Amino acid sequence: FTLRKTGQFKYNNQLWTVGDIVSLHEAKSSKVFYAQIIELHENDLCENRAKIFWLVPKANIGVTDESKKVHHDTFKPTEFVHISIDERFISMDCLTFVMNVPNLFEYRQHVDSDYLVNTYTLSHSKRYAKSSSESDGDKGKKIGRAS
């Protein structure tokens, strides 16, 4: 049966919604990993799957030495950052609900976003750089100057 995309479904007496924060436990250790649901899928056989965006502590960005990486047992939205999209469909059996989508831009921007896969995100400076069709001289003429 074909999986079809949905915005939410009920699973194990929990309403799961795109944008929710979930945790996954590593089988070989007690480490907990966090992710944000960016897609939910279901089929006629009641199989439920999610596509997730991995989250890591901001303190670990750029740290290559595993022994120096911090690990959080609790999720605080302001201390995590999105790093990569998992291309697999994760079974809901593997996910533990943590919280609904946090009320922060960096989490809300990924809700209902079909553009996420293979996307290049522009930096702030590139997004707001002046257009190549405008020069500083043209801007002065458009604004007009009082004498």
UniProtKB/TrEMBL annotation:
GO BP terms in the entry: chromatin organization
Organism: Schizaphis graminum (Green bug aphid)
Protein name in UniProt: GATA zinc finger domain-containing protein 1
Chief localisation class: nucleus
Chain residue ranges for the region called Disordered: 128-147
Localization, UniProt: Nucleus
Gene Ontology molecular function, alphabetical: zinc ion binding
Domain of life: Eukaryota
UniProt key word Phosphoprotein: no
Keyword set includes Nucleus: yes
GO terms under cellular component: nucleus
Protein keywords: Metal-binding, Nucleus, Zinc, Zinc-finger
InterPro entries on file: GATAD1 (IPR039050)
